[in-house]
Every structure is written in structure tokens, then in C-alpha cells.
Design brief:
single chain, 253 residues, alpha/beta, Rossmann fold, 7 strands, 15% strand
Length: 253
């Protein structure tokens, strides 16, 4: 049955940025499909996410790590291996953001965004990928953005980093596909999450953005669950290096 191909029963998924917003929604979505979760956050409590996952009958292990420190990447994978003995899915959702005019960005701000969004993500992919190659199976899903394809106002560092992740997804897919590992990405459009708090409270930008979304609303975390389960499951076994846009039609205008 085709629906069985979407099941994730007893798979182990690492989800970064899992304490709230999109990351929390994705962790719960993977758990609903059958996966156990190693949820990663820097300092935020993971109790709410963990409780929701465990209520579904899945195991949840909280992992606190600061992805602004690249050394945390291997520690995250090691923690998941210690708890579950394997890693089947890596969902790289954690991201850093700094909003400032392009001519005013500081080197420190630029480096922070790129370390969290691109550099640490790469080394998470490397550490998890090594385990997946040994297993000859695995799924890596990177969360990019519609800003991987277009510009934005006051987010030069974020836009550059997310464009880099989209291209990294393709590069890793090329190298890991022969080993049974799928690497793909999801590009959300405008979602009503904490990261977009400034936009949601901007009396000028909010209506400018909202009127351009054909679906007539901003996205919610649950709008990404289906895409994540698809890319994490056997249903996407022949999909490599794809960036799946989930944006309410934003990119079609």
C-alpha cells in the first residue's frame, strides 16, 4: 500500500530548533508518522515538544546545544546515537536571524548568522551523514527559505546563508545518493512564527507581504508537516537534491 511508504515507525529523527515554531511542528509531525525524536534547542525548554511527542507513544530525548559553536554539531549526533543507537533522519531547522540594512551589517552579525545557518548545518550533515552511509540509508532535510531564490529587505546575511544551504543540499545529494542517503530541502514562504515577529508587527511590511500570498494567509507550522514526512519517508526514495517550496503560492506570482 502506498500509504505505508509514508510511515516512519521506529525511525530516529534529529530535529534542530525543536522547542517552538516550525521546529516544534515538524518534530510532532514526524512523531505522528512513527518516529522517535531527538529534539535540539539552545536554552529554550523542550518540555512542551517532548510532552507532545511522548503523548503520541514515541520516545523523546532533549539535546541542548548552541549551534553558534560549530563543535556542537558532532555533539548533537553523538547524543542521539547514545540515546537511540542510530540516526535515520536529520532535519536541520534551527536558524539565526539578524535584521539590518545591508550597508550596516557588522562582521559579528554576519558571522553569527552564517555559523548557525550554514556552517554548523554542514557539520551536522557531515556527522549524521557518516552514520547514514554506514547504514546505507538515511534522510537529510534542510529548511531553507523562499529567500534562497530572491532578495529581501534587511536580511542580507540570512538570504546569503539560506541560498548557500540550498546549494549545499544539491552538493550533498550528489555525493550521498550512491550510499542510499537522500538529501533534500524545504523552502517555507512567510510563516507566522517568532522569527518573523518584526514583520508581523510592521504596519507597512505586513500588508505588503500578506497581499502577495495567493493562499490569503501566512503559513502555520503544521503546513510543513506533510512535506517533512514525505521527504523523511520511503515515499521520496528517488528524490535527491530537490528544494520543495511550501509558500502558499508566493513564488508563483
Amino acid at each position: 500500500m502506498i500509504l505505508d511508504c509514508f510511515r516512519l515507525d521506529d525511525k530516529v529523527a534529529i530535529v534542530t530548533g525543536a522547542s517552538r515554531g516550525i521546529g516544534q511542528g515538524l518534530a510532532i509531525g514526524l512523531a505522528e508518522a512513527g518516529a522517535h525524536i531527538a529534539g535540539v534547542a539552545q536554552t529554550s525548554s523542550l518540555d512542551e515538544t517532548g510532552g507532545a511527542v511522548e503523548k503520541l507513544g514515541r520516545r523523546f530525548v532533549p539535546v541542548h546545544a548552541d549551534l553558534a559553536r560549530v563543535s556542537s554539531a558532532s555533539a548533537v549526533v553523538e547524543a542521539a546515537l547514545a540515546a537511540f543507537g542510530r540516526v535515520d533522519i536529520l532535519l536541520n531547522n534551527a536558524a539565526g536571524q539578524r535584521r539590518r540594512a545591508a550597508l550596516d551589517f557588522t562582521e559579528e552579525e554576519w558571522d553569527y548568522v552564517h555559523t548557525v545557518n550554514l556552517k554548523s548545518l554542514y557539520f551536522l550533515c557531515q556527522a549524521a551523514g557518516r552514520e547514514m552511509v554506514k547504514q546505507r540509508s538515511g534522510k537529510i532535510i534542510n529548511i531553507v527559505s523562499v529567500l534562497s531564490f530572491q532578495g529581501g529587505f534587511g536580511v542580507a546575511a540570512y538570504t546569503a546563508s539560506k541560498g548557500g544551504v540550498a546549494q549545499l543540499t544539491k552538493a550533498l545529494a550528489t555525493e550521498l545518493a550512491p550510499h542510499g542517503v537522500n538529501v533534500n530541502a524545504i523552502a517555507p514562504g512567510y510563516f507566522a512564527t517568532e522569527m518573523n515577529h518584526a514583520l508581523l508587527n510592521d504596519p507597512v511590511r505586513l500588508p505588503q507581504i500578506s497581499v502577495r500570498i495567493p493562499a490569503g494567509r501566512w503559513g502555520r507550522p503544521e503546513d510543513l508537516q506533510g512535506a517533512a514526512v514525505f521527504l523523511a519517508s520511503q515515499a521520496s526514495a528517488y528524490l535527491h537534491g530537490h528544494v520543495l517550496v511550501v509558500d502558499g503560492g508566493w513564488m508563483s506570482r
